Amino acid sequence: MSVPLPPGPEVPYFPPPAAPPKRPKWPWVLGAALVIPALAAGVVLALALGRASSSPCLDKSQEAPCVGPGGTWISADGGIRPRDAAAPATTSPSIPALAAPTTTEPALPEPTAKDYSVDLAVVSKQCFGSAGCNVVVEPKLTFLGASTLLWECDITYSISGDSSGELIETAYSQGGSSYRVDRTVMSTRTTKVAPKASVTSVSCRKP
Question: Higher confidence at residue 21 or residue 86?
């Protein structure tokens, strides 16, 4: 049961204060999403700068082992030592070019008379008592040098023992030990004469 208030001055009415508006949470989330990657990038950059500044290499962006000053070598532990065979090479070794085999023929001197010897083989002999003999001889040439494969030569030789005096003949070298010769018919004064021959001159040319 309500009791009526006694009459009196009226009390003014004040409405209750309004509740403060709620702030949205998304700005904080956005700020955290931006700040965290920036901090991570800063840490990575700081580590990279610290590592580069501590590198003993000439190029601070490199890490040991690397080439040091004055041709030295900086090892992985930062020590400086001379470059030697044990140090890793920084360049590939050059491969020498293979030289083509030469096909130049050996320089053999031109044969001379002293490079040959000649003997006479008696092919036939007919004697006439004290009147002497008719003799047919054939030269046998021998080369005393290294090789005559590079030369063709005219070999002149003399034969002694003929009753008319010295006989001059020529043989032909066709390279190597191949010769073209002619037989010689001669007359001796007695049966005791033995014909002999010797090389007097040689004329050679390249085939």
Answer: 21
